[in-house]
Write a structure and sequence with these properties.
The chain is of the alpha/beta class. It is built from 13 helices and ten strands. The chain has helices spanning about 5-15, 30-35, 55-70, 85-90, 100-110, 140-145, 165-175, 190-200, 215-225, 235-240, 280-295, 295-300, 325-330, and strands at about 45, 75-80, 95-100, 120-140, 155-160, 185-190, 205-210, 225-230, 250, 265-275. Helix 11 crosses helix 13 (about 325-330). The chain is globular, with a radius of gyration of 19 Å.
């Protein structure tokens, strides 16, 4: 294990603050005004992710559910850099709903990592499905570099994900938990498609995909090139799960991707649909209720969420549950842990 991660953390925070999003003040005023006390928003902006990812079509499904089931309300889907940017958009009032990774929401609530000194509190309407950490490379590169455990990427050219994404936030936290310093890796900040191209062109050694299992981009890469997913060894999993971010151990089963013929141990983080504290309570109730009563629309665009996208999954929320959503869950008999009550 290695020293802490000041260089990478500084890089990440510095780049994120130049993304052009309005920087929100700490949202303590939500509590002062009363959580859920804001006005009804008839035109809802839904912050998602890149158009090639999973967040974007899920946002489209949610937009359709809102338009079809809530009188006078509509949703517009916004393509973004994903979780970190989405939380900033919620904090600034530029978005009303957002899909985010739980670790980014936790960091924002506690003012850590990219949100140091810039706390943003969000509240969950629902927990959707887990994102799985994939450390992706090609088999030829893995053999050349000797990638047997994740920490072997030290000294490599590594993409931590797009600027402002949950992918970047998770990778940064993983490095920090493993005490891998940013100076020990040649960092690139690329989206998924760019990471795949860079691997194929010999411009990169490995990169993170923090995505739902069975991601189309990884599958596509595996159909054209010999794919290798770098495993996390037992002590690495333990260090990450016992650190910050609310991660859980996970195994990518053999056969999930072309050419991946053995189980790959790794970690996972839950995705949540979140809003700001001032989001109207009745509207939050109606959206949560409509989503679960029309959940097939979401499953039609992302079938792997089926086993997770049930009301009881709210127990995995990284942040407190919004009062409107809480009312829905209590109405249908789902218990909400005390620490998740607003």
């Amino acid at each position: 294990m290695r020293r802490a991660l000041p260089a990478l953390a500084a890089l990440t925070a510095g780049v994120l603050l130049t993304t052009g999003c309005t920087q929100p003040a700490e949202t303590g005023t939500d509590e002062e005004a009363g959580i859920g006390a804001g006005p009804v928003q008839n035109q809802l902006s839904i912050a998602t992710g890149g158009t090639a990812g999973v967040y974007y079509p899920i946002g489209g499904a949610l937009s359709g559910i809102i338009g079809d089931n809530l009188d006078g309300q509509s949703g517009s889907v916004e393509a973004t850099g994903a979780s970190v940017e989405n939380i900033r958009l919620i904090g600034s009032g530029s978005a009303h709903l957002a899909i985010v990774q739980g670790d980014a929401a936790d960091q924002a609530a506690n003012g850590t990592a990219a949100f140091e000194g810039d706390q943003v509190r969000t509240y969950s309407l629902a927990v959707l499905y887990p994102n799985v950490f994939h450390a992706v490379t090609l088999d030829s590169i893995a053999q050349d570099k000797g990638y047997e455990c994740f920490s072997d990427v030290v000294g490599s050219r590594y993409s931590v994900g797009d600027v402002g994404s949950g992918n970047e936030a998770t990778t940064t936290q993983v490095f920090a938990s493993l005490e891998i310093a940013g100076t020990e890796i040649e960092i690139d900040q690329l989206g998924y498609a760019e990471t795949a191209s860079a691997l194929q062109n010999g411009q990169l050694d490995a990169g993170s995909w923090v995505v739902g299992e069975g991601h189309a981009g990884i599958t596509e890469l595996g159909t054209t090139d010999d794919l290798h997913i770098i495993p996390m060894c037992e002590e690495e999993q333990s260090a990450i799960v016992n650190g910050y971010g609310g991660y859980t151990e996970h195994v990518i089963e053999a056969g999930t991707y072309p050419g991946v013929d053995e189980d790959v141990p790794t970690i996972a983080v839950w995705n949540a649909l979140v809003v700001g504290g001032s989001f109207n309570e009745d509207q939050a109730y109606e959206i949560t209720k409509a989503m679960f009563e029309n959940v097939q629309a979401v499953l039609d665009v992302y079938a792997p969420a089926e086993e997770y996208l049930v009301p009881e999954t709210i127990a995995n929320s990284p942040v407190p549950v919004h009062p409107g959503a809480l009312r829905y869950y209590e109405e249908i008999g789902v218990e909400i842990p005390e620490d998740l009550r607003p």
